[in-house]
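Posting for a labmate who doesn't have an account.
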Amino acid sequence: MFKHILVPTDGSKLSGKAVAQAIGIAKLSGAAITGVYVMAPYSPAMYGEAAIYVPEMSRKRYEELARREADKALAALQKQAAAGGVKAKAVAVTVYGPWEGIIRTAKAKRCDLIVMASHGRRGLAGLVLGSETTKVLTHSKVPVLVVR
């Protein structure tokens, strides 16, 4: 059935549910799992004339903090997969759009399924906040299973 499943994670409870579903599918089909954490690139703050001064974070400090969060989320995924008896690898990627990072990783790792969480925002909240899940669904050539 499936041989390689990609699971995006941000370390939240909701993405943990997606990881659990992916582990279940992987066990049934003998698939491997790759967890991906997508980090936004460093972007220095820009201020206009009326802006309140906020101390700028250095690129190095930003990257350290982002990497720490990625490592924490991916370690939790690997621990959950190991407990479920499933082989799992982890990768952190840096790209502006999380959906792009997810799709690129799925293609690069030759995944045949993406299992990801969705907050299920609708209406104005979904429109204003956007939906990374919707973007993955509309741009991915790899099948996507959405977990709520």
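Reply:
Got it, the structure tokens are right above this. The helical segments are 13-29, 59-83, 98-108, 123-129, 132-139.
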